[in-house]
Specification:
Structural class: alpha+beta
Strand content: 15-25%
Number of helices: 12
Radius of gyration: 20 Å
Mean pLDDT: 80
Helix content: 40-55%
Low-confidence stretches: 1-27
Number of strands: 9
Largest sheet: 6 strands, antiparallel
Distance between the termini: 41 Å
Order of helices and strands: EEHEEEEEEHHEHHHHHHHHH
């Protein structure tokens, strides 16, 4: 079986009147197979801001996930999520695997359509799952099929605007299908029991759940600290300790990521987006966006459709 190098699953908005080649689409989901997937896990200690799946295809390996060790053979897999430490302890010479990962903030709008915030955090506490032979064969088959389709599209060269428009939406649907299949197989399996949590773990998990619920309404760290009856400074220290990023960083990333997607992929006016994100005025939204992106919402939207 051939081993593919870095394969990118693309889904981002494009303007069919201005795009001419598919490579201009921004990739958000990356899939690695064979030896490179193991190398990627070996170099990783913390899955900062990433969510993904690692599946063993052949051989044996041991992986430590946030202090808990799992032994993997063919058909066994795990999810990794932001702030979760991942370390490869052992692999034998037959080891082979597939890994898929994406930036958490970029895929959250899609994931939130089917999975609650509480369920997303479950992946951190119960990451390991085992697939039946038929389940694994199916996932492997569609992953390889999709990888070949991406390769075919990316090597097609110059295409018409209408082809770009159709292909982008085709790849978008295919990528969503694959991601949802991972989730479906996870829930169909018997995940390991949740490991004990420290008080700080609970604070971080509660923050991520609250953030997913309120980020459109509240952008102040004080609000999230108050929900847990904690002093803002100590609350921020706990979040930084557990995730490697400040609470403000997570808030800003959530707000900016959705704002970018609305600017790229929707017909909403900038004023409507500002209202949707609960900014008091379009001007305030523009200043906030430019502070963290380096461009105004209008310039960002124009740049993405040039």
């Amino acid at each position: 079986m051939m081993f593919l190098s870095w394969i990118y699953f693309y889904f981002a908005g494009i303007n069919p009147l201005t795009m001419s080649i598919l490579e201009k689409i921004t990739p958000i989901l990356k899939v690695v197979q064979g030896a490179q997937s193991i190398t990627e896990i070996e170099r990783r200690y913390s899955a900062q801001e990433k969510i993904g799946v690692f599946m063993c295809r052949r051989g044996e390996m041991e992986v430590e996930l946030s202090g808990r060790v799992y032994r993997l053979t063919r058909g066994e897999a795990f999810f990794f999520t932001p702030s979760m430490s991942v370390r490869l302890i052992y692999k034998n010479h037959l080891s082979d695997s597939i890994m898929a990962e994406a930036d958490m903030q970029q895929v959250l709008p899609m994931i939130n359509k089917v999975i609650s915030a509480e369920e997303i955090m479950k992946f951190r506490d119960e990451p390991f799952f085992s697939l039946a032979q038929q389940q694994f064969d199916y996932l492997e088959k569609i992953a390889l099929w999709y990888a070949r389709r991406i390769e075919e599209v990316n090597t097609a060269g110059q295409v018409s605007p209408m082809q770009v428009y159709i292909q982008e939406r085709m790849l978008n649907s295919m990528a969503e299908m694959l991601i949802y299949e991972f989730f479906n197989m996870y829930y169909a399996s018997q995940p390991a029991q949740a490991q004990p949590q420290t008080k700080k773990d609970v604070v971080y998990q509660r923050f991520m759940i609250d953030l997913l619920k309120y980020y459109r309404q509240e952008r102040d760290v004080t609000f999230y600290a108050a929900l847990q009856q904690m002093a803002p400074r100590y609350f921020s220290c706990v979040i930084k300790e557990k995730s490697g990023k400040s609470a403000l960083h997570w808030i800003v990333q959530m707000v900016i990521t959705e704002s970018k997607q609305l600017l790229k992929n929707s017909d909403m006016s900038i004023k409507e987006i500002a209202e949707h994100m609960n900014f008091s005025t379009q001007s305030f939204f523009g200043k906030y966006f430019k502070q963290y992106v380096g461009a105004s919402p209008k310039d960002f939207r124009m740049r993405k459709t040039d």
